[in-house]
Write a structure and sequence with these properties.
The complex is a heterodimer of chains A (71) and B (517). Chain A has a single domain, classed as OB fold (Dihydrolipoamide Acetyltransferase, E2P) (Beta Barrel). Chain A is an all-beta fold and 71 residues long. In chain B, helix 14 runs parallel beside helix 16 and helix 18 crosses helix 20. Chain B has 22 helices and 16 strands. The longest helix of chain B has 17 residues. Chain B folds into three domains: 245 residues, 2-enoyl-CoA Hydratase, Chain A, domain 1, CATH 3.90.226; 190 residues, 2-enoyl-CoA Hydratase, Chain A, domain 1, CATH 3.90.226.10; 36 residues, no CATH class. In chain B, 39% of the residues lie in helices and 17% in strands. Chain B has 517 residues and is an alpha/beta fold. The chains are: A mainly beta (71), B alpha/beta (517). The interface between A and B is medium-sized, with 12 and 21 residues.
């Protein structure tokens, strides 16, 4: 079942750390946000495969925005 | 009846009371993964030290529904015993007797042992496993109108004696205020839950279908609501953490916390401290590694570890002296402070201050979260609450700036103006009202936009700004007491702690302040 990963803080996408098809473990970074002078990873909530990345580097995302979708 | 027969009769009565709700009810208690109230008390106190009060109690006989019912000890085991040799008072609800419901006589017993704790100044411990008020004896205005004494007493004695409320089963309705007003609330996974209104009431009043676990299980309260302090695996673990928690505390606010012999050298310099904070100032790391490298034997007793994880609070020791550690956690939200983090830290600072436990602040804080969402949620008053608590605290306060010390984050983490008895910085410290990027954009906006190459100009200005925030500027103005090698953290803190033992701060008289909440 697809599952959306949402940003937990407002910030700028500093790095897209995963691509569609990647199989990752719980806690692995999917993207890294730049916010509050820090690089803050948005992590895999569980082990699984990335289906879709919805953001690109440099883009501003709001807290609660979907940044990626899991298989 | 002669005295021997009377003595035998007494022994029989005691035996029946100790059998609690009977063999079947005890078997059901065990089958549900729980120990009985009496087994719990045996594990809580030093062997053989428990003295019971009120074992002969029985229900008050005020309700027609109760006629013919037996309620051994009236469903609650009460008394006093010793933990590591020091006295504490206990109220253990017995779920095998009418689901541990609080009857009228039970209340008399509870009042009695609270009085012991409060007048003799010793910790009060509740082991909660109770369906709540015994409705048969509590219903009606005549019975209810005068009730609620315990919450007033618990409030008044808050900060006078340590109060622990362990959730070891249900704690429904009013019972949930016992943990809410207590200092420390461990919750047993799977068997404990608390809610102001249990599932049947919730269904009746608002139509929501919810299980007790979803409504108020240990995960809900230890990860989401913040009402619980620590999730523990089972009853044994729960009783062990109560003993450990109290080992850091004096019996009352009139005493100093107990010191222990310590085999961890005060001069220990841990080389790991050179590796933990990353070179890149925007990179996260786990601040708990710093705490472990500094405190005695690397051991910290963390409170609320799964809630508001952007700040770490916990009890530990330095050279055997109990301390409270407050540390920003860059691993979560970059260590930025939000409402829950302010709540967590404020409560912990007040707890330590109330019981004479010195505070150690480890700063790496990019500031408070900003934006419309947190402003609407009242982050100003939450931040103010932490300012208030750190200002009020008169225990020894020691501050180490590990890295970021930005804006009000620096203040609430006991910056120089908040009376730290020592404030030192690691060479990586950045102390500033705001960060280089944000500051440069505001101060040099015109210069940057009018430059031939704005990006290069911005980068140059940011680098210049960065030089202004290094700790040697603050140390040069004698506004931090020293810049230290990270490996010197433990010996530095221990020496400062010993120096600050005689700290005495007088505050102007007031009834109480008006705390932002």
């Amino acid at each position: 079942m697809p599952e959306e990963i949402k940003a937990h803080i407002t910030g700028i996408v500093f790095q897209v750390a995963a691509k569609p098809g990647d199989r990752l473990q719980a806690g692995d970074p999917v993207i890294v946000l730049e916010s509050m002078k820090m690089e803050i990873p948005v992590e895999m909530p569980r082990a699984g495969a990335v289906k879709e990345i919805r953001v690109r580097e440099g883009q501003t995302v709001q807290e609660g925005d979907t940044v990626a979708v899991l298989e | 009846m002669g005295m021997k027969e009377r003595a035998d009769d007494l022994a029989g009565r005691r035996h029946r009371a100790r059998a609690m709700g009977g063999v079947d009810a005890v078997a059901r208690q065990h089958a549900s993964g729980k120990l009985t109230a009496r087994e719990r008390i045996d594990l809580l106190f030093d062997a053989g030290s428990f003295t019971e009060i009120g074992i002969q109690a029985t229900h008050a006989g005020v309700s027609p529904e109760m006629v013919g019912k037996e309620t051994p000890a009236d469903g609650v085991v009460t008394g006093f015993g010793r933990i590591d040799g020091r006295f504490a008072s206990v109220i253990a609800y017995d779920f095998t007797v009418m689901a541990g419901s609080m009857g009228r006589t039970a209340e008399v017993k509870c009042n009695r042992v609270r009085e012991i704790a409060y007048t003799k100044r010793m910790p009060m411990i509740w082991l909660i496993d109770s369906a709540g008020a015994r409705i048969q004896e509590a219903i009606g205005s005549r019975n209810f109108a005068g009730s609620g004494l315990l919450f007033r007493e618990e409030s008044i004695m808050s900060g006078v004696v340590p109060q622990v409320a362990a959730m070891m089963g249900p704690g429904a309705a009013g019972t949930a205020y016992i943990p809410a007003l207590a200092d420390f609330v461990p919750m047993v996974k799977g068997t404990s839950h608390m809610a102001l209104g249990g599932p049947p009431l919730v269904k009746a009043v608002i139509g929501e279908d919810v299980t007790p676990e979803e409504l108020g299980g240990s995960k809900v309260h230890c990860e989401i609501s913040g009402v619980g302090d620590l999730e523990v695996e089972d009853d044994r673990a729960c009783l062990a953490v109560i003993r450990e928690y109290l080992s850091y505390f004096p019996s009352s606010n009139l005493e100093l916390p107990p010191r222990r012999a310590c085999d961890d050298p005060a001069e220990r310099r841990d080389d790991d401290l050179l590796e933990i904070v990353p070179d890149n100032p925007r990179r996260a790391y786990d601040v708990r590694k710093v705490i472990r490298a500094v405190v005695d034997r690397g051991h910290v007793f963390e409170l609320k570890p799964a809630w508001a994880r952007n700040i770490v609070v916990g009890l530990a020791r330095l050279a055997g002296q109990p301390i409270g550690v407050v540390a920003n956690q860059p691993m979560v939200l970059g260590g930025a402070l939000d409402n829950d983090a302010a709540d967590k830290a404020t409560r912990f600072i007040m707890l330590c201050d109330a019981f004479n436990i010195p505070l150690v602040f480890l700063q790496d804080v990019p500031g408070f979260l900003v934006g419309s969402k947190v402003e609407r949620a009242g982050i100003i008053r939450h931040g103010a609450k932490m300012l208030y608590a750190v200002s009020e605290a008169t225990v020894p306060k020691l501050t180490v700036v590990l890295r970021k010390a930005y804006g009000a984050g620096y203040f609430v983490m006991c910056g120089r103006a908040y009376e730290p008895d020592l404030i030192v910085a690691w060479p990586t410290a950045e102390i500033s009202v705001m960060g280089p990027e944000g500051g440069t954009n505001i101060i040099f906006r015109k210069e940057i936009s009018s430059a031939a190459d704005p990006e290069a100009e911005r980068a140059r200005r940011v680098e210049e700004f960065r030089k202004l925030i290094d700790p040697y500027r603050a140390a040069g103005a004698a506004l931090v007491d020293d810049v230290i090698d990270p490996r010197e953290t433990r010996p530095t803190l221990i020496r400062a702690l010993e120096m600050a033992r005689t700290k005495k701060v007088e505050r102007p008289w007031k009834k109480h302040g008006v705390m932002p909440v």
